[in-house]
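User: Structure please.
Assistant: Input sequence and predicted structure:
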Amino acid sequence: MQTAPFPDPRDPPDDDELFGVVGKDFKIVTTAVDRLRGDHKTITQAYKFSKTSGWYLTYDKGRQRICYLFPKRGDFLLKIVYNDKGVAAMKAADVGSGVKEKLGSAKKYAEGTLLEFAAAEITAKVLAELLRIKVASVA
């Protein structure tokens, strides 16, 4: 099992360190979030710590959690939870067959339906649309 890239609770990374670990694919997320910020200026990011995952990044709009980014060496794991309204919007949107296939087998929790993506599974354009749907579904 691979250890977390940032395991020390006393030493949170900054964006440059995160980019250094994740690599060029971190641009997928930053580009998508920048597009979302074009319509929603209040999108923030915060580093959080978990004993099992080490430091990870969250993106929020006010008190609404938009997504989680767990860094991996040369990759990332992005998690987004959708309510029923978001799932319905995603089914009607042009998000690609790969996303819709994931949606068909996604885990469902009390909080909603969880979609997870590695860097190779998503583009900045598709992620921007998924984040737009996420924000709109709880507005």
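The first helix runs from residue 15 to 22.
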